[in-house]
Each structure stands twice: as structure tokens, then as C-alpha cells.
What we know:
By secondary structure, the chain is α/β, with parallel strands linked by helices. The chain has ten helices and eight strands. Helices cover 38% and strands 19% of the residues.
Amino acid sequence: MALLHVDFFSTVLGMSMNMDVILPQQTWGQIGMEGMCAEGKYKTMYLLHGMSDDQTIWQRRTSVERYAAKLGIAVVMPTTHLAFYTDTTYGMKYWTFISRELPEICRTFFPQMSDKPEDTLAAGLSMGGYGAWKLGLGASQTFGAAASLSGVLDIMKGYRKNMQENTKNLPLFQGIFGSEEQLKDSDNDLFALAGRLAAQKKALPRLYAWCGTEDTLYEGNLSAWKYVKDLGYDLTCQASPGDHQWKYWDEKIQDVLRWWLETDLDLQ
């Protein structure tokens, strides 16, 4: 595999941005690892970070490069700051950046990346799990599948919790989403987004989710899972003992890759 640290300019955001990119490479002779390179265009996973992190975190906390090496896929890990993958009320268009501009930039820089929705996965943890499902539900023409690990899938519940219990986050959440009334039923509300897409009778993205039963986000996940299932989405969801930490996400990202690529390959 090749690991690239890419600094580039976002016209949408009006500033320089960063991403780490893993590209397939057929290799022989590496100690403890073999690199694969599938034929044709690269299937690509856009792997999103959570609230406290940046584009480096998946490399630092998991063995995602080793897992990708066995599959011959590309992985894009962008920094998106603390904006919940949203065109914020304070004027920064992070949703437009992540859903439109970034895939275009990546496919220009790396023309071997496939532009087919079925070859493009959005995945992420916590805030990134919300972002991943948002990409699947709000940009399904680009992202044919979306996977959330411990995601903030019920954003209305998360908004109210922060308003009531963690008032220091009040300016942050209002700056991103506006008021509760502005958030409800908007394209930032995954329940509303899922309902609108299902009503259009278009092809629906495949969805995956995992959440630990001791996670504070667990109840919100259960609500979201039931809602999209009732709408007819192809959802694979799993719950198991665990809370909000990396030892689970390192394990579960392997399950995500096997689910997406429909393989039972041992990635360890």
C-alpha cells in the first residue's frame, strides 16, 4: 500500500485542507504484510473522524492500512473539523465540501478511483458515523453504501441532550445547526433525510451500523435503525457490549469492510 499525506485547497471552504489517502499497491517481500491491487478502478472508502479528531486518527488508532492492503481498495481520510459534515449556519459549507467537492478532487488527483456509487462507501465513527449516513442518504448518487460505528444517528436527541446537559456546547451546536426548530425535518436530520429519499422511489443506499449497548448513543441508534428498516432500507445493524472507544472501532471497521465487499476474508 501507499500512504499519502495530501495538502490541498478547497474552493468551497476557501481554505487549505488535509487528507490522508491509502492507495492499493501489489507488493511482494514486505515483512508481515502483503499488498493487493484489484483489477480495474479502485473501490474507495471515505473514512470520517469524530468530534475530537482529524484526518490522522484512523491511522493512529487502528490498523486500517493493513486491512485495506488485503482488499486492494483505496481509503480517503479527510479532516473536516468540528462541523458535523454540515453547511453550518455560520457560513462554512462542510457538507458541500464532503459530498461534492472532495470526491471530485480525489478522482482528479487519483483517476484510478472508481466513480460508481456501488464502489464508493462512506464510513465513520461517532460524529463521523452521522456524516457517513448523511452521505449515503443525502448524496446516494455518489455514495452507494454508508456505515456508522457508534454514530450520532438521532441528531435531534443529541441536540437536546447538549442543550440540556452540556450547555458549554450551546454556541457550537447553534452555530452548526441553528435552533432546534431549524434542525428538525431539515436535511441535517437523518430521519427526515431518509424519509425524503425513500419517498422519491430511487435506489436506496445499503446501510450498516454498530453501537455498543453501554454507549450513551445506543438508544438513539435503536430508534434510527427501526426507522430506516420500516422505510425499506437494506440495513445491517449490530449491537454488542461496549462503550465509546477505539478498541471496538478497530474491530468493527473490519466487519464494515467485509459487509461492504461481501467477503469473509480474515483481515487480521
